[in-house]
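Action item from last week, closing it out:
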Amino acid sequence: MYYKGKKSRRHTDEHVSTNSDFHGYGNKIRAELVARIPKNRKLKVLDVGTGFGLTTGFLAKILTKGSEIWTVDPSKEILDNVRTKLAEEGLDSRIPIEYVRAEAAKLDFEDDFFDTIISVMVLHHLEDLTEVMNELLRVMKKGGRLLLVDYMPRAGMELEFQKRHKESDFFKPEEVVRIMEKGGASKIKLKRVKLWYLADATK
């Protein structure tokens, strides 16, 4: 693992999980998302933070046909890898997927473009959550759904990450809700599950 470019010892704590599917929480997270994503509707969906393509692939499987997905990540290498992976799995033939190289705080989409915006385990990588939140709410339609999932601060001490994280790298759930409210989100519901949480809001 690396943190700010420096090697660090691997955790040996019994709580550590090296499971790449969100440390073993993937199925539970996806179940929570499925319950909140509108069904039987053609949606324009934004996946913020492509990563390993887990969320993009999941969306391609469960969205109503006729829906569209845009997945954004600042890394061209990550986007290319996921594009290849999902093509090999045939998922790009079911739902159109656009791979966009961009920073979450600077999205080249018009206002009120997306019906649903989802981000899973990305917030702790951001330095300025307010700037990103304002941008996400800008590109989300009035009445759209914003679903944000991230780790609790203590996860930095209990889980193994590719880069070593401190508790201060993670946003407290209450802080995320406050920033969402300040940005114009409404009907915000917060659910805590073990070492992660889900913030669900509309605009």
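Closing note: Residues 24-33+42-202 form a domain with the Rossmann fold fold (CATH 3.40.50.150).
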